[in-house]
Amino acid sequence: MRRGYFVKNSIAFVCMVVSLCCFLILFLSTLKLPEVSSSNDAVRSHRTTKDRKFSENWHLGMFGNMLVEMLPQDLAFTIFVPSEKAFWRDLRLNVNESFAAENINNTYAIVSRVLGFSAVPRALTSDAVPVGKEISYDSLSGFTLYISKAVNGKIVVNRVQSESLDRRKGEIVVHIMDGVIMDADFKQSVQPDYDEGR
């Protein structure tokens, strides 16, 4: 009887020691785990990093920043922003004249119209555009954008080629274009009158 008692006690003792060791390992491992932030904090941190990269590495210009700021930062959009040179060449907008008191309303009207033609309510990176194939999306104004990718990797939207691709600000994907995307009526209304200079 004494011997059976010892065997029973030793099995119980071993089970207790193994259980305590497992509990101790589990307890110590939870103490050493790094603190995990909530998913909202991680997304916010990721967005802050993207926003910093957006503003430090490239320059949109005054009108490009206006376009991007008109969109909500927390929704997925793609915007094909004209370069500063394109704003001047195609629309004759420059910062000094456009923000004069007498021109400010006209400037905002033109820029908001450009936004309607050049923004798509979805995130569209250059990787999503196949080389040699054309895809189409409706812009915010309902204007159809025909998007393709050239062999050199540049995106072409309605025959306007990109200068810089896949920049982000919040959830917005920004492509800088070497031209202004617009319909024929708007183009005719903003085209400079070349006869004035003669």
| Helix content range | 40-55%
Q: For the largest sheet, list the strands in their spatial order.
A: 2-1-7-6-5-4-3
Please summarize the sheet with the most strands.
Answer: 7 strands, mixed
CATH topology of the largest domain: FAS1 domain
- Series of H and E elements: HHHEHHHEEEEEEH
CATH class of the largest domain: Mainly Beta
Given the structure, what is the number of helices? 7
What class, by secondary structure content? alpha+beta
Uncertain segments of ≥5 residues (pLDDT<50)? 35-57
Distance between the termini: 122 Å
CATH superfamily of the largest domain: FAS1 domain
Coarse shape = elongated
Strand content: 15-25%
CATH architecture of the largest domain: Roll
Radius of gyration: 30 Å
Question: Could you explain the architecture of this structure?
Answer:
By secondary structure, the chain is α+β, with helices and mostly antiparallel strands. The protein has 2 domains: 1-34; 42-192, FAS1 domain. The chain has helices spanning 2-32, 39-57, 61-69, 84-91, 95-98, 104-118, 184-190, and strands spanning 77-82, 119-120, 135-138, 144-149, 155-157, 160-169, 172-177. The protein has a 7-stranded mixed beta sheet with strand order 2-1-7-6-5-4-3. Helix 3 (61-69) crosses helix 6. The chain is elongated and about 100 Å long. 25% of the residues are buried. Mean pLDDT is 80; it is low at 35-57.
